[in-house]
Amino acid sequence: MKHTISILLILFMHELQAQELFTWTEPASNMAAKSIGFRVTNTLMNNNGSNKYSYLLRPEIMFGISGKVMMHAEGFFSNENKGFAANGAALYFKYRFLSNDEVHSHFRMAFYTRAAINNSQIYQQSIELNERNSGYEAGFITTKLINKVAMSVSAGFLHAADNTNENKFFYPDKYRNAIGYSFSIGKLMLPKEYTSYNQINLNLMLELLGQTNFGNGKTYLDLAPVAQFIILSRMRVDASYRFAMLKDLYRSASAGFLLRLEYNIFNAYK
After folding, report:
1. Nearest to residue 204, comparing CAs of 150, 265, 266?
2. What is the pLDDT of residues 35-60, one digit of tens each?
């Protein structure tokens, strides 16, 4: 009986959280406590005004410190600076401060912050702390899950510092600050019913991603459809295409593909 109850609880929690694993943004929920995750994100972006593509590799390690606290450490590698080379690194911290759980739904809120260092040349007005800019970011995330549908909203303040290797911020200082925001929605499509822990999950999502620079008031707004597969509840494969719907805020690349691989180890430490 205890074994049966444990399996049912695992399946129930698995279903409850399955479609909260967004790709371009983080939800307010955290990874499991005492877990470690390994992630490799590949993006291939089409440079504006040319037929050349920029390739960015982001290896990442994630720590579920507790049920409320998690941390990510990631590195950046790209082919933009005279061959494929390391560009920088970042630390991401998230604290879930509100959780309201019901039988088939929950509502959660979290605070997040990110700090990044980068050696890339700066030649765009948008601030990209997980790709091109040194600086910091802080904001809030709200996530609502109802049955098999999850919705998440985030907003945060971004500040761009000078990059290393004497790659100073190219634009006037008033361009250093921006607000970033997102809206994500996802639905668990498969399986229709849980019968085994080994079933593959398919989540389909849409993510709306935007930024407005305080210095010039200009904005970009992107849409990113995502297909996500979860295997054995510990492996993820995400595939997405991101494209611009509004291009007022200048970026060197505004459309491209993402492929992410992830593996999680539960109860990795005491």
Report:
1. 150
2. 999 999 999 998 876 778 899 999 99
- Chain centroid to CA 173: how far? 27
C-alpha Rg value of the chain to the nearest Å: 19
Structure tokens, 152 = 């998440």
- The whole-angstrom separation of Cα 64 and Cα 61 is 10
**Residue 47 confidence (pLDDT):** 84
> In angstroms, what CA-CA distances link 66 with 31, 35, 69, 101?
9, 9, 5, 17
Give the residue-averaged pLDDT of 163-184: 94
* DSSP symbols for 16-78: HHGGG--SSS--SS-PPTT-EEEEEEEEEEEETTSS-EEEEEEEEEEEE-SSSEEEEEEEEEE
pLDDT for the residue numbered 14: 41
Q: For position 83, what pLDDT does the model report?
A: 81
Alpha helix positions (H), the chain = 2-17
